# Entry
Amino acid sequence: MIEVHGLTKRYGEVLAVDDLTFAVRPGEVTGFLGPNGAGKSTTLRMVLGLDAASSGTATIGGTTFTAQPAPLRAVGALLDPGAVLPGRTAYHHLLALAAGNGIPRRRVDQVLAEVGLEKIARRRAGTYSLGMRQRLGLAAALLGEPPVLVFDEPLNGLDPEGIVWIRSLMRRMAAEGRAVLMSSHLMSEMELTADHLIVIGRGRLIADTTMKDFIETHSEREVRVRSPQAQTLRRLLSGAADVRGEADDTLVVTGLEAAEIGALAAAGGLELHELSPCQVSLERAFMDLTHDAVEYQAEKEANR
# Structure
């Protein structure tokens, strides 16, 4: 379990992380979200003892990472897939990590097979593609069979098969009772993978909730309506809801439930061919919640 209490980090006058408190529990994949510049990577570095906190604490299993006698047995982490000597083979990179943490040599072969690198394990890591380096980083994280896993953008450079594999891996690790913390900008994958969400903006916590509750709470519900009299229906609904056209015969309505729309259409004698709630996505909910916390916006958006 990861426990963060009042975690704060200043770089001179810049407040990168501001009094964060949250927990990452066993048996769950916790998604760590925030716009660029929100402080996600800085937070992960403090959790892993790579940056010193200005104040507050971050512990793993009740102990700071730097106090762990065999760190890879306590937590497996992937923050930078390039953090490997380019002239060293994948096999010898993992072998060195295993030796330093009291991990049996046989475990090296096991994780290489698990991440699909066994056939190229004797190649130098400097010749690997980004996707291969990601897999090597994951192998290092899994090496000590730790109860806690921390991944920062683990999907970068992976092909579709690799992304599906990572999703399955995260779910399996959580099902085995591990605490999994995963940061990613790929909202569609996060929605399929995470059970719980921690969302930050400008270094502050803005949501700590389940995936289901986050989506339901932080986005407006929409209803798709198809009718051969779509424009008449639009005029009828426009006083009570936000209505936008999706096609000549299709409207998307925000602010009214499907039953209310159906009743208004029936009262107006209008024919409906479809009346269905739209699937609300994590991406839409995240954008709605964090719009004011975005540090770096495109010029068009920033000047609006």
Observations:
- Confidence is low (pLDDT under 50) at residues 299-304.
- The CA atoms of residues 258 and 280 lie 15 Å apart.
- The first strand starts at residue 2 and ends at 11.
